[in-house]
Amino acid sequence: MGTLTKISIVVLVVLILLACPVFITQATVGPHYRQAYDRQELENQLLAQSVRAGELVVKQTTLERDRLAAALTRDSGAMQTEIDQLKAELALARQRSAKLDNDLSLINGELAKLRADYESNTERTKTLTQQRDEGFAKIQMLNDESRRLTDLLKQTQLDMDRQGAIIKTLREQLVERDDRLRQLEQEHGVSTAAKPPPAPGAGARSDVTINGTVTGVRGDLASINVGSAKGVKPGMQLVIYRGSEYVAKLRVDQVDVGQSAGIISDKRLDPLQGDKVTDRLE
Question: Could you count the other beta carbons within 10 Å of the beta carbon of residue 263?
């Protein structure tokens, strides 16, 4: 039911209520018709004013309704536009949310892959670190072995140099001895060609080279750290040397398995503990 219809019904009810007293008065009042007519005319005028006032109210109400309807239509249009805009923004936000979800899934996949790669690289790094440490240990062992071999080579070279010097010294001594022997033979008229050959085994030498170290010196006695296990025999002549210098000779008197002792002779220097001994100079 519209507003105008409601207003019209209200106006009719008001007119009916106003007309009822008139009808009641006509029915109950005596034959004073002029008065009644005047009264009725006045009442009709009042009723007409009331109707006009009602129509004015209805007109104002209609205008207000039209204004409100226009405002409502205008507001509804604005609200619909805003609703459409909000719907568009919501659709765009949903698209962005879907894109973000997709990007998040891709990022999670990449993170999982990176985590797996990191764990693999960590294991590989641990293995490589272990291999590196093992390599460093091997390198250290090789360096130690190399230094030991270098020191041994240097010591061997020094020993060879000392032996070379001893050989040179002994050769010089042999040359001097041969010169002295020739001189003595010339002085005594003995020919070297008339010398008898050496007895069998008298000048034989062992195929084993004896090398040792002086372990103790006491007067003209010295002990060495080689014995019968290395081929040392009683009566054997050994040469004592220090570096490249000839020191003395040692004639072995006592022999044990791992050590020997003898008498020092032909001294050029005083033998000391730590000097080297050998049975031959090649």
Answer: 13
